[in-house]
Structure formats: C-alpha cells, structure tokens
Design a protein that fits this description.
single chain, 293 residues, alpha/beta, nine-stranded parallel β-sheet, two-stranded antiparallel sheet, globular
Length: 293
C-alpha cells in the first residue's frame, strides 16, 4: 500500500505572501519522507462546508502542481479531481502533458463530472446538466486516450470537435500519464473508471460500503473484459491531528483497507500541515508500516 497527501486548504499563517513558502516546505517535506503522491483539489472557490467558506484562499490546481513539481523529485502529482467541463479537453490534456514533461513523468490526470455549481456560476464556467456533464466527462477521457497515443485524427463527439489533436511534446510517462476517475456512482462513474481509468477514488464510508463499491467496479470490469486488478483502488481519507494514538488508529484502518484491496490511501486535510510537524509524524510513524502492507 502507498500513502499520499492531499492539500485542500491554503488558509495558513502569513496570508497570501506566505502561501508559496508554506506550500514549498510541505511538498519538500512530504516528498523527502517518501509520500508516494501529492494531490490538490481542483477548485477555484473553497468547497463550502467543513473545509471553510467559498471566499477562503484557493489556488488554481495545475499552476500549483507545476510549482510543486519544481520543488519535488519523486512524488506523483495530480488533482482530486478536475471537473471535466471547466477546461476544453484538448487544453486540459496539454496542461496535464506539460505537467508530466516538466515533472519527468509524475503527472496524474484526475477527472470527475463536477458538482460545485456556485463556483462555476461565480466565474462564468460551463456547468450543464448532470447528464451532459457525464457525457462531456466520457468524451474528455476518450480525447485524453487518443492524444496520448499521438493519434492526430479528428475527434468528433457529441459535445467536442477537435480537428487536429496534436500533442507535442508527448508525455514522459509510459504508456501515458495515469488517469483517475473520482466518485462512487454505480451506473456511470465506476463504469467510466472500468472503461478508461488506471485508478478509481472512493471515500472511507465503512467496510460494507467499500466492499459494495469495489464489487460494482469488479462487475463492470467483467462485463467489458477489463482486468479488475489493473485498476488502482485509491481512498481519500480526512485526518485528525496526528499523534501516537491517531497514527496507530490510522494504521489499523489501513490494514483493514488493504484487506479489501485498497492500494493507495491519500490523507487529506491534515490539521496544522503548514507547521510540518504532522507531516513528519505521519512520515515517521505511519509510512513505513503502511508500505509493508
């Protein structure tokens, strides 16, 4: 099992002038300790609710990942997840490819249908019906697959038309950057993961829940002739303040998730992450034990 880190907040001490310094220090620390991946949300407003208010600080995802790429050496980099309708697919694939080239093969493309209507309306971004968002998500997955094969034939879908999808320089990752589809919808989201993705992403909503969702994914794979084992099963896990008790509890949960077939646990919303102490604690106390699972 591998361990990743997601950074969903930027409301740190020092305000805007210090965000870059904090982000660099966190990324360098996590990378040096051996975290397998570093992730961001791909939001333009903060997600309302337990993460804060819409007008809390939020950085654009791909610009920020490029910054992190320059200050790290080993960790994979991606978004959990990009709303497929926010950027034209050809542009999005070029952005992910650029990240892959500049990070020397460490980029992921995380995709979802999107949900944050206020954010989209606030900044004038497309936010069609749920049905259309899923249609556009699937076409985006098809376009990414084609462009990463250096296939420059025109693409004509229901929503997107690319006359000449050239993608040079091509990605460093082989055969292409990994694609992750986020979400647990059984009829559409997990089917798209089975058809196109290298990984799915679920939430830790209990053992029965995870067993059921993984069984749905397995059935979709069987129906289309996909090897279920070829899809990484990732889990996004909010974390309390790390300490001896918390890390031992997290390890116990990781052991259970490993038994279910989860490959990659991504720890999110670590309190006081900008102080670096929680990252160091998790790296020292949890990473080695999780790597052995």
């Amino acid at each position: 099992m591998r361990l990743g880190l997601q950074l969903p907040r930027f409301l740190w001490s020092g305000g805007s002038a210090e965000i870059g310094t904090h982000l660099r220090d966190i990324a360098e620390t996590a990378d040096g300790l051996g975290f397998a991946s570093i992730w961001l949300m791909d939001h333009l407003f903060q997600a309302e609710g337990h993460l804060g208010r819409a007008d809390d600080p939020m950085l654009e995802g791909y610009t920020t990942l490029a910054f992190i790429a320059a200050t790290t050496k080993r960790a994979s980099l991606g978004t959990l997840v990009t709303a497929a309708t926010y950027r034209p697919p050809g542009l999005l694939v070029k952005m992910a490819t650029t990240l892959d080239v500049l990070s020397q093969g460490r980029a992921w493309l995380g995709l979802g249908a999107g949900w944050y209507a206020r954010e989209a309306a606030g900044l004038g971004l497309p936010f069609p019906s749920l049905k259309e968002r899923f249609e556009r998500l699937e076409e985006t997955l098809q376009i990414a697959t084609q462009m990463w094969k250096s296939d420059t034939r025109p693409f004509h879908g229901r929503h997107y038309h690319l006359s000449e999808p050239i993608n040079q320089p091509q990605a460093v990752s082989k055969p292409r950057p990994s694609i992750l589809v986020g979400g647990a919808g059984e009829r559409k989201t997990l089917l798209l993961a089975a058809k196109y993705a290298d990984a799915c992403n679920l939430r830790p909503n209990g053992t029965d829940y995870l067993m059921h969702k993984l069984d749905v994914l397995k059935r979709h794979c069987a129906a289309i002739g996909r090897d279920y084992a070829s899809i990484q099963k990732t889990l996004l896990v909010p974390v309390d303040q790390p300490g001896a008790l918390v890390t031992s509890a997290l390890l116990a949960r990781c052991q259970e998730w490993a038994r279910l077939g989860i490959d990659h646990v991504i720890l999110s919303d670590v309190p006081a992450v900008e102080t670096l102490k929680p990252v160091e604690t998790l790296g020292r106390e949890l990473l080695p034990a999780v790597a052995a699972l």
